[in-house]
């Protein structure tokens, strides 16, 4: 119940040169919480709308529960959708809003009452059932919208940026509730967001999209630790991963990362990557997350330890951490540090990287040399 | 802060005074019609004329009904014709216009833009300019002396469609998508979601459709040769036009004037709150 298969699905709008969704190929397992994430216009919402049946599929096949559903109307797909602006019927009370889908499906009246009340209890909106949507706050409207989806007990839940109209505090709270709800109901859920924090915290698997193309499909931790390409590496994580351009050379059997300002001896764990990249000039982009950048007071033997001098541009204190923006030559690097050590602008600390946590990307294609990208 | 909000400024006093005076001035004709209808004959011809009635009497109405019963067609026939035609026209205009507007506002199809332009274009024509073609069509399909002849010409109401398209297109598309996923059919979406939300706009078009049809003389004059098919508006109009320069029937005319005005007032009072909503909606969104 509730598995979904996209078989090379395309969406092409008339009069546009590039498809909005390009060769979307993915299987979603029953009970999975899949998050589609990407910048606006990346095709994530279009994908969801094709799944809902609100948008025609231009090419490829879509299966829900191994049933071919390309031409099945939304109401017969056994799905429920939560919209960004809630889409509650303003002329109906909360109760009627939740009950409408059941009524239209000719559910017996006593069962409608039972289900609406049960859902209202779960979402703590029992006291609101007689109100009209205009009398509700944003958070309450969102709960009613969720309730409407849950009451139908569909195989698949679709959520299109359901939290983006809520304020920060309510968003975090509702996020936690949706996670709990999903794990209780164990229904397949496809969730669209542009917020990478939402994606990382909610999804059991995340699909990162850009320009209609899937960039990577992976569980959150894997996406963070092994991004498949430069886009994913930059999109996931805040502040974003630092990128340093340079080349990799081999000297006396060891690999070094070089650019104008630094020469780093790379641990032999990476040897395999560069052996495979069998070219004379190995131009790469080195990626390192802010928490893996080390700052310290300069010492004479820094060079041997792999530290170089940097210049502090700015410091951001968030409370738990502070982010120090430094430059090394032309590269701008952000380091996460303990807020206890204060850096002033124009300070010249030594900077180094946690050598076991480096990422390398092909400079031309942007693809990770670790090729840890595509799922499984 | 609160104190400042509560304090009445001189500007507000002036504003309220001016608008009250303006409202009073605007309501003078209504007050006049009301008073006029109950004036005995001697008061009707007082010079200088008085605004308010001194000795109210119902004799004007008595005369009106007597005058009508003397005619070949009873007064009640005109009333029935009017009520029947107005009710049927109102219902059909609402049904046709809302359906047309929903499709034009929310669906994509070929020639949609052309149809919308044609509707806008037809707003430009004054009723007089289409009098002759309308007559030819009515006589061509033999609708003389039928109720259909009353109803059909006002059925296609471009202004109603135009207003409703504007209103319905502001209903978020997500509502319809949500309803589709909930299992509603096209008709279901229309009746359960679109119609209830369009009520303010429907109220507005009801008012002016009512006023147009209730006061319409042209249809009865041109298309209805049979006196029994003519409406109250025609009857009152013919009553008044025959009396323009005579002293004799002024009391009857005064009563008839009030009689024609009352339904308009009732309809307006019934729907005006919804009309305000239309204006607020179109202002904000």
UniProtKB/TrEMBL annotation, chain A:
Keywords: ATP-binding, Nucleotide-binding, Transport. SUPFAM superfamilies: MOP-like, P-loop containing nucleoside triphosphate hydrolases. Residues 4-236 form the ABC transporter domain. It comes from the Bacteria. GO terms for biological process: carbohydrate transport. One of its GO terms (molecular function) is ATP binding. InterPro entries: AAA+_ATPase, ABC_transporter-like_ATP-bd, ABC_transporter-like_CS, ABC_transpr_MalK-like, ABC_transpr_MalK/UgpC-like, Mo/tungstate-bd_C_term_dom, NA-bd_OB-fold, OB_MalK-like. Transmembrane segments: none annotated. It holds the Pfam family OB_MalK. One of its GO terms (cellular component) is ATP-binding cassette (ABC) transporter complex, substrate-binding subunit-containing. The keyword Membrane does not apply. NCBIfam families: PRK11650.1. This is sn-glycerol-3-phosphate ABC transporter ATP-binding protein UgpC. It comes from Cohnella luojiensis. The gene is ugpC.
TrEMBL record, chain B:
It is found in: Cell membrane. CDD domains: TM_PBP2. Its main location: membrane. The chain crosses the membrane at residues 12-38, 78-102, 114-135, 147-168, 189-214, 252-271. It is a multi-pass membrane protein. It holds the Pfam family BPD_transp_1. One of its GO terms (biological process) is transmembrane transport. InterPro entries: MetI-like, MetI-like_sf. GO terms for cellular component: plasma membrane. Residues 79-271 form the ABC transmembrane type-1 domain. Belongs to the binding-protein-dependent transport system permease family. This is Carbohydrate ABC transporter permease. It comes from Cohnella luojiensis.
